[in-house]
Design brief:
Blueprint lengths: L1 E5 L4 H10 L6 E4 L7 H11 L11 H5 L9 H10 L8 E4 L2 E4 L3 H11 L1
Parallel strand pairs: 1-2
Antiparallel strand pairs: 1-3, 3-4
């Protein structure tokens, strides 16, 4: 599977996608327009090792709901990601059996090396 999950309104996602110069073989999934499915999220979790790794603690809703003060379980992380697209840390890049989550320089460089 070669896929990128991103948000079209996110300038960081746009910059990273341009930087990666993704081949046409990559499926582009805009997560606001086409919500992530349970099956897709479970596949991402299998690659990432946990739902928490896919969860954005920088999401506005995370702060607004006071979730940082709660002890969240793996099921909570899964439920929140499925409930609202902003809880998915982005972009999420899947290149065959490798997954790259987020926008840190190290993650982007690793994804770039994997793709080229």
């Amino acid at each position: 599977m070669k896929k990128i999950y991103y948000l079209a309104t996110c300038d960081t996602c746009k910059r990273i996608m341009n930087e990666l110069n993704l081949p046409a073989s990559f499926e582009r999934r805009e997560i606001k327009q086409q919500e992530i499915t349970v099956k897709e999220l479970e596949a991402l979790r299998d690659l990432a090792g946990s739902y928490e790794a896919l969860f954005s603690k920088r999401a506005k809703l995370y702060k607004e709901r006071g979730l940082k003060d709660e002890k969240l379980s793996e099921e909570d992380f899964k439920r929140f990601i499925l409930e609202h697209y902003t809880f998915l840390k982005r972009p999420v890049i899947v290149n065959n059996d490798e997954i790259f989550i987020g926008n840190s320089k190290k993650v982007v460089e690793s994804a770039k090396a994997s793709i080229s």
